[in-house]
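Input chain follows. Return structure tokens only.
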Amino acid sequence: MAMSAKERKQRHLERERELLRHLDDSTYAYLSTPFCQQVARDPNWSKVTLALELAGFEGPVIETDEGPEKFTLEDALPTDEDRAHE
């Protein structure tokens, strides 16, 4: 018996998903590099800091992977106590 258009499309999507499962993750090399090292090597980072400086903000100097909490204002993020009460 012939397949309907819906069945053909489902099989086609299944084949595509199966092919995608076997592909390497193209971001793998970037995921293994800490963000601070990636920023140091990225020639475009100066464009990011330039845009911030033109807007009147001082760009962050990222030397370690301490996370965004280090660079935010104290009142910008909720504290652990605030999160517990939500």
